[in-house]
Amino acid sequence: MNRTTNNIRQDFLNFFKDKKHIIVPSSSLVPYNDSSLLFTNAGMNQFKEIFLNEKKINYSRVATVQRCLRTGGKHNDLENVGYTSRHHTFFEMLGNFSFNDYFKKEAIEYAWELLTSKKWFNIPVHKLWVSVYQEDDETYKIWKNIIKIPIKQIIKIGDKNNVQYNSDNFWQMGDSGPCGPCTEIFYDYEDNLKPNPEDFLNNKNNRFIEIWNIVFIEFNRISRNNIISLKNKSIDTGMGLERIASILQNVFSNYHIDIFQKLKEHISQLSQVHDLNHISLQVISDHIRSCAYIIADDITPSNEHRGYVLKRIIRRALRHCHKIGMKKNCFHQLVATVIKVMGDSGVILKQKQKKIEDILRSEEKQFSYTLEKGLKILNSEIKKTNNNILSGKTAFYLYDTFGFPIDLTADVCREKNIQIDYNAYKLQQYKQKTQSNINKKFYKNYNNIIVNATCHFEGYKKNKTKSLVKQIVINHKSVSKANKNEYSIIFLNKTPFYPESGGQIGDTGELYNKTCYFVVENTKKYGDSIGHIGKLISGTLETNTHINTQIHQLNRTAIQLNHSATHLLHSALRNIFGQYVCQKGSLVTHTHLRFDFSYQNPIEIFQIQQIEHMINKYIRQNVLITTQMLSLEEAKKKQAIALFENQYSSIVRAVIMKDISIELCSGTHAKRTGDIGIFKIISYSSIASGIKRIEAVTGHEAINYLHKKDNYITDLSLTLHCNQSDIKDKIENLQNKIKYIENKITKLQKRENQNYITQLLKNSYDLKGIKLIIHIFHKYEHKLLRIITDELKQKSKQTITILINVKNNRFTIVIGVTKNLFNYITAIKIMKMISERTHAKGGGKKEIAEGGGIYTEKLSIILKNMPLWLDQQLYQT
């Protein structure tokens, strides 16, 4: 019964291959056809369009081993990972699917044969129980009469709260859409006890574990109370590989199967923990798999969306590495072991091993300092908790300041039996969000309008057309006509105007006929139609009338140059920095281009020049830019660059630049690379952790940019009275002169300070043998107050100094206290007293504090009474 996890995976595929199923590879963890999902979380995700009858396929039987991730929303396993025997962030889902082919009887027979046949998994029949939907008599009879499973091992599950179809055994895709009853197969871990239905329902100590769910998709939910039968019925099944492996390897916990045992052994070697059942080893072994597969699908750590989920997982793993004394910067070393233990499923990791290791190494270096500091603060705050509840304000501070995700803080608190005040945490989140939205202006758009028209885009070959007005929208409502000076959105049957998409801005231009003239200020996509947004300058425009269209050709040409240059930039970045550079966003306008991409290391000036050199070389080659319609599979085989988390149809448009670049793109482009003329990077920056941004110009804009730089250098040389070639030497000479003058000033100031120090010591107060020095300077350098304070403390071993500088009706203050007085008085305590009474702001430490505020007579009075106040403080001690 004992076999490896990799054997089990392959046996499953072999079994269904024998049953005439097409073996479909796992789709990406990033679902390309479902924007509602952050990550692929079930085997059926890639077939969703088929279940919804939105896509046709050439096969009716499919089997897959799908990579899945559950870290948010309905399926949020992150907090439980490591603390239970079944939960994982990453797992593999074995599934077989039928699309209007076999149904209940065959699906159940296949499952039973695979699980119980001696040729396959050979699980004893008495160890398996099944559940069925209470109203699904057909399924019940199949189990009872055909499979002949004992009646006591068939459990009917009814509706909750007497609401029809509200059952654990009635699967639903959502509030509407395909749905149907399901039957689940459970494994009984006990050998000696004779179970009864009550034992199954109570399931104490997780005696029964669900291993396979078979869903019969036979209905379509129209509304809450309306479900109709589907003409085409389908099968959707799912069996967790890790769960079935634990059964076939005769272990209770998923973390005891071969894959995890080998990972935990490696982690143990790198740490101070040798107990392979330690929770931290389980957390790290789970999380390293998740991190590796997420990064392999071109997600990089960031502060939003999928990148933030990855960052959370990495940081939770690193916290556990820190807890078990794992050596610094070695989390990435586990990647090689993951690749080894995952077998055929690890091929995608092997291809991107260096990228995965580089990103994990970089993240660990960045987080190591803040982890130690944040944990120190958290542990300190935990000791101060009342009623074992950590304040939400502290939890939010750790997140906001140190990048501690709330689940990481919860992880630490759980180990110490501390609860988090989540309501207060959410309140802090809300306050920050509200604050960040102050003064923001939102552009009014029309994304929610209903468009009945469809529009054919002809802009790849034409810049003007004669079109029919299909619909006019004003203030979110469809109207029959637009009048002069009204802003509206015009929908046509065909257009040369490119709608804003894929980073490329929408075209501008004009619509006109004999009776009206409409200026198009922007163009956007609305479902299958294209909206021309703008203002009617003259006449009236009615639906069902013909109109001429004309794009602004100069703008379009400039946009095309920048878009083609963006593809060249993407190619150059991958050639210079590595193939794992991944696009994270772009903007293509008629004035410039912007490109965001994943890259962990700093970018040096020589690398920027290297990028420019490579792109301008491509431009000089004057390569022909062509487009080709390909199937999605063909595009992948040609290694076309694409954002595969986007939704693509089965046929895609590839933009090809000979041996330089091939990308899936719907945008408009130049005819040849030589049309771009020249490429110049105008800025580069880091916009988030691991995300870089480059902005550049091409063509005339690039020449204008270079002219401006020339003019600036010319003006600079005239100002410095030197040739352009001598500017650097001239500036260095001036810097040396400034440094010489500053040194002379510093020497003079030191002399002046010594005079001040002598006078201040003479005029000091004596408080029980302690020197108190108070002095007000006028229009003095604030940094000199610090220097004087330090020197005064060195001159006298028991000293309190309060130095004030007044300038333009404002004051700054520096307070110093020698260390041997900390038991009696501190600088921060004096600062606090002054701040409270003058409404000044300030802070600091025991030894030195600084602040400032508006100067009033009140400060003079406080300083006058300071010896008496300090004498009282010293007397109290």
What would the keywords be for this entry?
877 residues, BirA Bifunctional Protein, domain 2, Elongation Factor Tu (Ef-tu), domain 3, 9-stranded mixed β-sheet, 37 strands, globular
Calculate Rg over CA atoms: 35 Å
- Based on DSSP secondary structure assignment, what is the total number of beta strands? 37
Number of helical elements? 23
The shape, in one word, is globular
Strand content: 25-35%
Structural class: alpha+beta
What is the class of the largest domain in the CATH system? Alpha Beta
Question: What gap, in angstroms, lies between the N and C termini?
Answer: 77 Å
Regions with little confidence, pLDDT below 50 for 5+ residues: 438-445
Q: How many domain modules?
A: 5
Query: Main β-sheet, in a few words?
Result: 9 strands, mixed
The CATH superfamily of the largest domain is known as: Bira Bifunctional Protein, Domain 2
CATH topology of the largest domain: BirA Bifunctional Protein, domain 2
CATH architectural grouping of the largest domain: 2-Layer Sandwich
Oligomer description = single chain
Mean pLDDT: 88
Describe it.
It is a single chain. With 877 residues, the chain is an alpha+beta fold. It folds into five domains: 5-256, BirA Bifunctional Protein, domain 2; 258-437; 456-551, Elongation Factor Tu (Ef-tu), domain 3; 567-707, 2-Layer Sandwich (Threonyl-tRNA Synthetase, Chain A, domain 2), CATH 3.30.980; 758-876, Diaminopimelate Epimerase, Chain A, domain 1. 38% of the residues lie in helices and 26% in strands. The chain has 23 helices and 37 strands. The strands form nine sheets. Strands 1, 2, 5, 6, 7, 8, 9, 10 and 11 form a nine-stranded mixed sheet that branches. The protein has a six-stranded antiparallel barrel with strand order 15-18-22-21-20-24. Helix 7 packs across helix 8 (279-296) and helix 8 packs across helix 12 (353-383). The relative contact order is 0.05.
